Amino acid sequence: MFKNLMNQNALEMHIVSGFEMKQKAKKYEDQGNKVIHLELGEPDFNTPANITKAGIEAMNKGESHYAQPLGVPAFKEEIAKYVREYKGVEAQAGNVVVTPGAKPILFYTFLTFIKPGDEVIIPDPGFPIYKVLAKYMGATPVSLKATEENKFRLTLKDLEPLVTSKTKLIILSSPNNPTGSIIEQKEIEAIAEFLRDKDIIVLSDEIYDRLYFGEDKILSIASIPHMQDKTILLDGFSKAYAMTGWRLGYGIMHESIAKVFNPLIVASNSCTNTFIQYAGIEAYRGPQDEVEKMKAEFKVRRDLLVNGLNSIPHVSCVLPDGAFYAFPNFKWFGKSSDEMAAYILENAYISSLPGSTFGEDLEGYVRFSYATSRDNLNEALNRLESVLKKVKS
Ligand SMILES: Cc1ncc(COP(=O)(O)O)c(C=O)c1O
To answer: Which of 124, 127, 269, 273 to mutate to test the pocket of ligand 1 (most atoms within 8 A of CB)?
Structure first.
């Protein structure tokens, strides 16, 4: 109905999301089966209590009115301080744009910079929203392909041949969803050098940078002085602070870009929920041990899951550098990734996301989120091993 009136780009928007897969799994749960949920990209931990308390206190104090569209000033100061100290990016409060979750930063970036015919370079495998937004704007998404041979770590060599006079925006995401792979420091530096004289905006998606299991930190491209003005840094509280449902994220950008985002925010959601921003202040100002505990647990689960997957005949899985996803290769079994995800849901009651959701040529891959208990992961591995034995027998 009304199809002739609708924007064609909107009609073609389709995202195979964790939400959709969760719905599919419900059928098996309704039949009395215990489904193991490895589809959703959200921590299974509760938000640390000090953060929740700060949110409740702010609400009780009456912080329940409209906030300034770009964010509560004290929160923007706190974010700028965090970004300076943790990421080495010379941000001030005027560079901060607070949003309900980090996703709107993507939306506003596309609305501000992209027009039909532009090319947007996106990581592949990568977060599906990048591609959907490029298409929605009538732009061409160009796949920046990471290879399993290189542990899915992107390099300048992968990027260089893709840049044309039509390239408007390059998205970098490290650690990446769905592979968990990082872009190494030397590659970030090389990419920054390559982009030095180019009029191209970089969106640096750093939502998982606190969940990096390596020794050093992930290098933010925005911390390289000549890149700061042309980088929009995306980050937020959903993943590292287990705050997905609060919806709290932000972007760091040149003030002139923040000025353009302002009316877009006024026209869409007015502002981010006011009392939640006070919870955000506590998240950055308060103790960080809960974040570190969650990260340590994710690392144990990563090792458990990835070692378990690699011990199943004909399955291989790169060890992810961070985040809470594994991206195993099931190609040997000869199924498309949709078929594989459906097979393991129907037979092992494991809910996952098909790899093809995340890019081109990803048939045979599946994304598992290990944001679930060790017991569930052990059980999933046992079930998987037994149902995979039956595929080619
Ligand atoms: C790579 C990546 N970027 C951004 C986001 C958005 O996070 P939020 O829930 O804060 O909007 C996600 C969430 O899944 C993600 O995986």
So the answer is: 127
Gap between the Cα atoms of 129 and 149, Å rounded: 25
Q: How would residue 8 be classed by pLDDT, with cut points 50, 70 and 90?
A: confident
Residue identifier of the C-alpha nearest atom 16 of ligand 1:
177
First to last CA, the chain: 47
pLDDT at 393: 61
Give the count of alpha carbons within 13 A of 143, CB side only.
Answer: 13
Ligand 1 centre from 226 Cα, in Å? Answer: 26
In whole angstroms, what is the distance from residue 230 CA to residue 222 CA? Answer: 8
Residue type at position 257: I
Residues in the ligand 1 pocket, defined by CB under 6 Å? 41, 101-103, 127, 173, 177, 205, 207, 236, 238, 244, 249
- Is residue 346, in this structure, part of any structural domain at all? yes
In this structure, are 34 and 106 located in the same domain? no
pTM greater than 0.90? yes
- Measured by CA distance, the residue closest to atom 7 of ligand 1 is 102
Q: pLDDT tens across 133-184, in order?
A: 999 999 999 999 999 999 999 999 999 999 999 999 999 999 999 999 999 9
CATH of the domain at 7: 3.90.1150.10
Q: For the residues 56-85, what does the mean pLDDT come to?
A: 98
Same domain as 40, residue 151: no
Name the domain boundary from 269, 285, 301: 285
Cα 254 to ligand 1 centroid, rounded to whole Å: 22
